[in-house]
Design a protein that fits this description.
Blueprint: H1 8-11, E1 25-31, H2 38-47, H3 53-66, E2 68-75, H4 76-92, E3 98-103
Antiparallel strand pairs: 1-2, 1-3
Helix pairs in contact: 2-3
Length: 105
């Protein structure tokens, strides 16, 4: 009795690969106003965005001189959480500090 040989290519299972894409990133921006103190902005950057005092000062100066500064770049969910934390802290301290998200790219 002859063995029935199968085509080796039929034995290979193929699987469609799903391409995994990195989630889009968002810049968290702090916006200048006439009431929020520079020290408060530095504190926000240090405590919410984990910036060093030197880095926080540079970002604060961008906010002051250019009207806005990038506090960090995150996925949307993390960025939204940071924005909400800034707004809560600003309201608690009676500052009108505005923070927003802008998609990178």
């Amino acid at each position: 009795m002859a063995k029935n040989k199968t085509n080796p290519q039929e034995d290979i299972l193929t699987r469609d690969r799903e391409e995994l894409q990195e989630p889009p990133l968002y810049k968290v921006l702090l916006h200048n106003d006439d009431y929020t103190t520079m020290d408060f902005v530095i504190m926000i950057l240090e405590e919410i965005f984990d910036k060093s005092t030197e880095e926080a000062t540079k970002i604060m100066l961008n906010v002051h001189h250019q009207g806005h500064g990038i506090a960090g770049v995150y996925t949307r969910e993390i960025g939204e959480t940071k924005v909400a934390a800034v707004h809560r802290r600003a309201r608690k301290n009676q500052y009108p500090l505005k923070c927003s998200l802008e998609q990178v790219g």
